[in-house]
Design a protein that fits this description.
Among the domains are: 186 residues, NADH Oxidase, CATH 3.40.109; 272 residues, Nicotinate-nucleotide-dimethylbenzimidazole phosphoribosyltransferase (CobT), large domain (Rossmann fold, 3-Layer(aba) Sandwich). Helices cover 40% and strands 9% of the residues. The protein is built from 24 helices and twelve strands. The protein has a six-stranded parallel sheet, with helices on both faces. It has a four-stranded antiparallel sheet with strand order 2-3-5-4, sandwiched between helices. Helix 15 packs across helix 19 and helix 21 runs parallel beside helix 22. The structure holds flavin mononucleotide. Flavin mononucleotide binds next to strand 4. Keywords: Cobalamin biosynthesis, Glycosyltransferase, Transferase.
Length: 690
């Protein structure tokens, strides 16, 4: 009997407490993890490639950039002269620039004399950092106490010392105290609040209903911060290529104001629920101004330690290590650290289920007012959710988001499907327009639909809800060469990891897999054949409903690709590169990313099954986060689920993809977690046990 990966409890328990679903006792429901052939691979060579492997081969590596000549004395713009640029280019060709030289300070020639300007002393520095840490956006707990003029003046002076493009100081501050004006503004904000609430998926809307998003009527002073894009004249230094520098400058004034207010014990709440032009008219502002911020200011009962949105479970703080890159985007490293490989870092964070929380969940299920085991497999899922979150009862996995990764396939050229390739892009447009089955199902179960272009063979216009993360416009034909390079496979995995990070940081408590790619069941069949050791004839299916002749051709294509590449399942990234799809690789990343963030991932059909096999080969404990949403009609999916030891929740002969099966399973997963919270226990309800 396969077991979910279980982490020893902190008390030092080596094994899961009894009752943990490792073996179904008589009368107990069957485990989520059904028999797995062979053993879970743990050999070191299955570990993800070390960081060095991401270093580009010499031919691909970007040319090192030599030191930039220092500007000539008295001519600060000299470095921008055309002749200097020419000289630099020539220098670069002539010189062999060593790595050491390339990191040398740009202004090498300048000799520093005397000591550097002094820093603040420790207490002063700590005061500066403290005000930044403890600044909060406040909507609750305002007091009506008036703000003395000298206090407000200090705050506005701080705002007015902000940096600005070309020193244009484009801001103005309109101080509003009138109850009538505030009522007008409040009405405008309430209208926008309603419109926003209507645009939300149900899971989010429920959360949003509880949130206060403004304190316009609760504060004695409101401040409107504007930006004048014409201020500073026609030749404002630094603005001619980037006109948005004027509003950016005004936003910096807002931050200064916010920090100074915090130091004064004043709370500030920024309200952006306005139609900007409507606001200009309502406030009687000159039409050429832009409104940058509407701020509610007043004394408060307290400043919360964490953002109110975090406290409400709306969002999570992203760690600094996610956002600092060394030299090039993607080489993440905090100062003083070696750049780390995103895949290796993610895998290192994946842990088995927590044995203590698992044990508590199982105990609780027994004490709930129902016969033991009466919720069948849902009891197992609730225990898995507890072990994953290390909490009993576990958080209810709501809100949830389905990530639909879309990509095209070079193997389409082999005639494996009657559908033309452009249908992938057309269906992406359909998802974004809300007209697909996944949209209807997502609407019904209250989930967000997030569409990711990881490799569609068409240029997709920027659209809300679409994440443009194209690695390449479709894979190559796996029957004539590798579908993608190893680097591309890793890049697509990283797209999936980053999607998981974004969706979880945005407050989602469950991730669902979805995918779209004409011809992608061919790649799924090939992956499943390799990882399960099953003959292509047994795992290649009819996909969208192909006839016997096409099925025979498709099976032959899978066989030929495998014979050509001889993929080694001990090298999962290599297998993906040889015969996978960009969406499969991204799904692998989503699973690993979700598991590393201890967030449940509900798997959809055959492509998700194929991706889960790859993910398991990279990090066996990824299964701790995986829940099989449904069993698809594709034969390969059954083989994949058996190999993974996952039992599907829904079995309705679906074969659509798009995350539809996972979406149908979502309410089951949410229901079991909710039952853990809401169902009384025998002791609490005074019900006699048998
Ligand atoms: C540009 C901007 C617009 C914002 N608009 C709103 C808003 O309309 N309503 C609201 O409740 N909070 C708004 N906020 C506050 C953010 O929700 C808040 O800054 C964030 O949750 C982090 O919390 P903290 O500021 O307490 O650290 C806004 C913040 C910024 C920077």
């Amino acid at each position: 009997m396969a077991q979910p990966p279980v982490e020893a409890a902190e008390s030092g328990q080596g094994e899961a407490p009894s009752g943990i679903p490792h073996e179904a006792a008589p009368g107990q429901p069957l485990g989520q993890f059904v028999p797995v052939e062979g053993s879970v691979p743990t050999a070191p060579h299955l570990a993800p490639a070390p960081p060095q492997s991401t270093v580009l081969p010499a031919a691909e590596a970007p040319a090192a950039v030599g030191p930039v000549p220092a500007p000539r004395d008295g001519d600060p713009e000299a470095v921008q002269h055309a002749e200097d640029l020419d000289t630099r280019a020539a220098d670069q060709e002539d010189q062999e620039v060593t790595a050491e030289e390339s990191t040398a300070p740009v202004e090498e020639a300048r000799q520093s004399t005397g000591p550097a300007a002094p820093a603040y002393d420790d207490a002063e520095r700590e005061a500066v950092l403290k005000v930044m840490r403890e600044r909060r956006d406040i909507r609750n707990g305002f007091r009506s106490d008036p703000i003395p003029h000298e206090v407000l003046l200090r705050v506005l002076e701080a705002a007015h010392t902000a940096p600005s493009v070309g020193h244009s100081q484009p801001w103005d501050f309109v101080v509003i105290r009138s109850a009538e004006t505030r009522r007008t503004m409040h009405e405008l904000a309430m209208r926008q609040r309603e419109a926003y609430a209507k645009s939300l998926p149900k899971g989010r809307a429920k959360q949003f209903k509880e949130l206060k998003i403004e304190a316009i009527l609760d504060t004695p002073v409101n401040i409107v911060v504007t930006a004048d894009p014409t201020r500073g004249g026609r030749h404002t230094l630094g603005r001619h290529t980037q006109p948005q520098m004027a509003p950016y400058s005004a936003a910096l004034a807002v931050e200064n104001l916010w920090l100074a207010a915090r130091a004064e014990g004043l709370g500030v709440g920024w309200v952006s629920f306005f139609d900007e032009r409507e606001m200009v008219r309502a406030l009687g502002l000159p039409e050429h101004l832009e409104v940058i911020a509407y701020l509610c200011v007043g004394y408060v009962d307290e400043f919360p330690d964490e953002p109110e949105l975090m406290q409400a479970g709306w969002s999570k703080r992203r760690p600094l290590s996610w956002v600092v890159h060394e030299e090039t985007y993607g080489r993440r490293a905090l100062p003083g650290e070696e750049p780390h490989d995103l895949l290796a870092e993610t895998v290192a964070q994946i842990r088995p289920l927590d044995a203590k929380a698992l044990g508590e969940a199982w105990e609780r299920q027994k004490r709930m007012t129902k016969p033991a085991g009466a919720l069948g497999m849902l009891e197992i899922i609730s225990a898995q959710l507890s072990g994953l979150s290390r909490q009993c009862p576990p958080p209810i996995p709501e809100p949830a988001a389905v990530a639909i990764f879309a990509g095209d396939h070079g193997v389409h050229a082999q005639g494996v499907t009657p559908w033309p390739q452009e249908v992938t892009a057309q269906m992406v447009a359909n998802f974004l327009g809300g007209g697909a089955v996944c949209n209807a199902f997502a609407g019904q179960v209250g989930a967000e639909v997030c569409v990711v272009d990881v490799g569609v063979a068409a240029d997709l216009p920027a659209t809300p809800g679409l994440l443009p993360r194209k690695v390449r416009a479709g894979t190559s034909d796996m029957t004539t060469g590798p579908a993608m390079s190893r680097e591309e496979a890793k890049q697509a995995i990283e797209v999936g990891i980053e999607t998981a990070r974004d969706l979880v940081a945005a407050g989602n408590k469950a991730l669902l897999t979805g995918e779209m790619g004409i011809a992608n069941t061919t790649a799924s069949a090939a992956l499943i054949s390799v990882f399960t050791g099953t003959d292509p004839a047994e795992v290649t299916g009819r996909g969208t409903g192909i006839n016997d002749e096409t099925l025979a051709r498709k099976t032959e294509v899978v066989r030929r690709a495998i014979e050509l590449h001889q993929p080694d399942p001990a090298d999962p990234v290599g297998v993906l590169a040889a015969i996978g799809g960009f969406e499969h690789a991204a799904l692998v990343g989503l699973l690993l990313g979700g598991a590393s963030l201890r967030t449940p991932v509900i798997l959809d059909g055959v492509s998700a099954g194929a991706a889960a096999l790859v993910a398991r080969a990279i990090a066996p404990e990824v299964l701790a986060a995986c829940i099989a949403g449904h069993r698809s009609a594709e034969p390969g999916h059954v083989a994949a689920l058996n190999k993974l030891g996952l039992r599907p929740l829904v079995d309705l002969d679906l074969r659509l993809g798009e995350g539809t099966g996972a979406l149908l399973a979502l309410p089951l997963v949410q229901s079991t977690a909710r039952a853990m919270h809401e169902v009384a226990t025998f002791d609490s309800a005074g019900v006699t046990e048998k």
